[in-house]
Amino acid sequence: MEQSRRNGVSRRGLIRGGLLAVAASGVAVVGFAGPASAAVVNLGLDKQGAKRIQRWILTMYGYNGAIDGALGTNSWKAMQRYLANWPDQPSPYRGAIDGIVGAGTIVSLQANLKKFKGYTGAIDGIAGPGTKAAFWRKAYSNPAV
Q1: Rounded to whole angstroms, how far apart are CA atoms 130 and 117?
Q2: Mean pLDDT, rounded, of the chain
Q3: Side-chain-side CA neighbours of residue 9 (13 Å)
Q4: Could you tell me where the beta strands, DSSP code E, fall in the chain?
Q5: DSSP string of 90-126, one letter each residue
Q6: Prediction pTM value
Q7: 44 with 130: CB under 8 angstroms?
Q8: Which residue has the higher pLDDT, 29 or 38?
Q9: In the chain, what percentage of residues exceed pLDDT 70?
């Protein structure tokens, strides 16, 4: 990856910080990467792991999309229903069932992962490496697709 620097900021640093998007034309567009809406948000899962999550939410929480390994809006709506309604959920999701993976969704997911999948990090709404590792454990504790 190119490491060109302008004004002391590298492209790699922008990508790591979530601030760089590349348009179809290949032109880099810098801007704030807010909560994902229609985007695929796999939180570090590979395609097989995402398929495991989709298969699990298909049977339990009303997911009606394709088992394609891309956790999009419909996948996250089903995950929000799970996080809102699971009886032992330590911090139930209280936001809109909209499929947007914002801080509220991540906080509820982190609380769930802390209770059930060994997450040891802060409940801070930021999907960092610990959250992603615990989400990976959740995915791979489900049957293969």
Answers
A1: 11
A2: 79
A3: 9
A4: 5-6, 9-10, 20-22, 28-30
A5: SS---S-SS--B-HHHHHHHHHHHHHHS---S--SS-
A6: 0.72
A7: no
A8: 38
A9: 73
Length of the chain: 145
pLDDT at residue 33 in the model: 40
All residues at 6 or more sequence positions from 137 whose CB lies less than 8 Å from its CB, including other chains: 113, 117, 118
Backbone phi and psi for residue 74, each to the nearest 5 degrees, phi listed first: -65, -35
pLDDT value of residue 41:
96
Distance set, CA 24 to CA 35, 87, 136 (Å) = 21, 44, 30
Tokens found for residue 9: 């900021």
Which amino acid appears at position 88 of this protein?
Answer: D
Q: How many C-beta atoms surround the C-beta of residue 129 within 10 A?
A: 9
What angle (nearest 5°) sits at the alpha carbon of residue 101, between those of residues 11 and 68?
Answer: 90
Q: Identify the residue with better confidence: 55 or 3.
A: 55
Domain locations along the chain: 1-33, 47-140
